[in-house]
Design a protein that fits this description.
The protein has 10 helices and 11 strands. It has about 280 residues and is of the alpha/beta class. The protein has one domain (about 1-275): TIM Barrel, CATH 3.20.20.70.
Length: about 280
Amino acid sequence: MIVGELNAKSILVKSNLPESDYVINPYVGCSFGCSYCYASFMGRFVKKKFSDWGGYVYAKVNAPELLEKEIKKLPNKGKGKVVFLSSVTDPFLGYEAKYKLSERCLQIIADYGFKGKLSILTKSPLVLKVLPILKKIKDVEVGLTITSTDDKISRYFEKRAPLVSSRISTLKKLNQAGIKTYAFLGPLLPHFVAKKDELDKVLKAIHETGTRKLFIEHINLAPYIRERMLKELKGVDQEFLNQFYSSQSKSYRNELNKILYGMLKKYKFELLHDEIMFHPEM
């Protein structure tokens, strides 16, 4: 694992994502090494290849100092705006124990009295360590990425990420602490059409944590992601590979959407952004 430090030019960056106005990414790269991650394109900023994803992390060591200056430029203390932590890394990597970049940024947001909405997405139970800070932020929600209920499957696609069982447990603890939550069911793994029971297990497990909001996204198999994933899938049977490729077809997505909408109704989930997201190949 390559671990380095760098100084960023800016940290509160205007977002192109439909659900946020600004993003904060305290790190470049991600040690979790999820094979399906679209964010591997970030490697070009630190002279890394797509295939290097998961093997490097660079800490933006000046992130808190930048945020302290930049957040003050938001009109009306950010009222009506959404800040997202983080879009192309996980804000609670193990390196937080050393750098505390996300923790320090959250403290700045709390101390400033930010009046907008803060949305956090992570795969890590380390988010529980900042609960006292989160409780001081006026409007905050925390999302956990849940792709399965099977730790073996999560370990296969999410090499060094915390096990999915620990993420489900983290969602429950956040809810018990009174923090607003959502689950990011994404990417939807290609076996769900063939194994509807597995999909039902995932939604049931999320429901049992107390979470009632879902963000759902189909898998993105852009060429640079597909190449990396196929290396990970070397040796699997052809039927599974066929399911993988068919996951990009409109008919597959329509079939899976139909199943999902039925389950959302069954468990009375709120679907964030009112649709199941899909990013076509680029």
